[in-house]
């Protein structure tokens, strides 16, 4: 018998494309485990106007809240009436909560990144650590903000230098745009936030460097595979996705996520089980 009644609490993920999002798998598994009268769907607005219409539907009380993914994270932040410090720091939001006609922006991406590092590289101490961020696009934004707040000295390396400089200026906190020839010296962590495979050999990083990739298709990206082959500790993007889902669930459904690790389910879904 379906748990879903007329009192169902509906949330979801908004992005375009969104069909391959793993967020519905995670949230619906948790909803099921807790037996909530709730559902987590997926929405793909055609364009920015479509996204704005969805936010209006939320404002009108039709949806409890949404996670937001590319390309709408900056627009989500801009359309909100209020924002958490974390969302404000990165100028983007991956959560919108609709309450009493108000739209609140939050961002759990940074928390997801820190969770992933703690989970897969527990020995890494970010405080005072030189960290290289590859990329200065939407994906890099929340990550750089979270790393800087955690005390890391972030060096941004990007094909378009001006974009790295603009991101560094936006975040402040000692974040700098850096030259690829010198940025890796002494780096304790290198994070890939590019939408392309980095043209970099991790074997040139110093021993002990932690290498993280924010993309997770496949979970072991060519960049992570090369880092592992060079004997370095690696952190994958699937851990970051899982790390942001917990705080998202709390905001969207007003209850803690259950202690169920969605990773095996996600690996099976990606066809990477075992
Ligand atoms: P996302 O939301 O995934 O971050 P984005 O905002 O378009 O997407 O950012 C993509 C990032 O990957 C940028 O840092 C981009 O570099 P530019 O700012 O110079 O465009 C980087 N990128 C994309 N394709 C690249 C390539 N072939 N070589 C190097 N960098 C690339």
Describe this structure in words.
The structure is a single chain. The chain is of the alpha/beta class. The chain has two domains: 126 residues, Rossmann fold (3-Layer(aba) Sandwich), CATH 3.40.50; 126 residues, Rossmann fold, CATH 3.40.50.720. The protein is 38% helix and 19% strand. The strands form two sheets. The chain has a six-stranded mixed beta sheet with strand order 2-1-3-5-6-4, with helices on both faces. Strands 9-8-7-10-11-12 form a six-stranded parallel beta sheet, sandwiched between helices. A hairpin with a 2-residue loop joins β5 and β6. The longest helix has 17 residues. It is globular, with a radius of gyration of 19 Å. The relative contact order is 0.14. The mean pLDDT is 96. The site of 2'-monophosphoadenosine-5'-diphosphate has 15 residues, from α6.
Provide a brief overview of the structure.
This protein is of the alpha/beta class. 38% of the residues lie in helices and 19% in strands. It folds into two domains: 9-107 and 244-270, Leucine Dehydrogenase, chain A, domain 1 (Rossmann fold); 110-235, Rossmann fold (3-Layer(aba) Sandwich), CATH 3.40.50.720.
């Amino acid at each position: 018998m379906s748990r879903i009644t007329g009192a169902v609490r509906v949330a979801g993920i908004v992005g375009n494309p969104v069909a391959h999002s793993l967020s519905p798998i995670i949230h619906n598994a948790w909803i099921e485990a807790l037996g909530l009268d709730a559902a987590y769907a997926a929405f793909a607005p055609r364009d920015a106007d479509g996204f704005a219409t969805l936010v209006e539907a939320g404002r009108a009380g039709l949806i409890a809240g949404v996670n937001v993914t590319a390309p709408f994270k900056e627009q989500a932040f801009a359309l909100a009436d209020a924002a958490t410090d974390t969302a404000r720091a990165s100028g983007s939001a991956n959560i919108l909560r609709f309450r009493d006609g108000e739209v609140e922006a939050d961002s759990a991406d940074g928390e997801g990144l820190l969770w992933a590092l703690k989970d897969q590289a527990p020995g890494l101490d970010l405080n005072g650590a030189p960290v290289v961020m590859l990329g200065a696009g939407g994906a890099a934004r929340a990550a750089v903000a979270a790393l800087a707040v955690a005390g890391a000295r972030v060096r941004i390396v990007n094909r378009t230098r001006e974009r790295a400089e603009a991101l560094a200026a936006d975040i402040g906190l000692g974040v700098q745009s850096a030259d690829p020839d010198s940025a890796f010296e002494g780096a304790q962590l290198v994070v890939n936030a590019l939408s392309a495979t980095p043209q970099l050999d991790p074997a040139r990083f110093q021993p002990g460097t932690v290498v993280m990739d924010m993309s997770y298709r496949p979970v072991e990206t060519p960049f992570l595979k090369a880092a592992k082959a060079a004997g370095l500790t690696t952190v994958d993007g699937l851990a970051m996705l899982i790390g942001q889902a917990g705080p998202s669930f709390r905001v969207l459904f007003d209850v803690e996520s259950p202690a169920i690790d969605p990773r095996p389910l996600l690996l099976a879904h990606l066809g990477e089980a075992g």
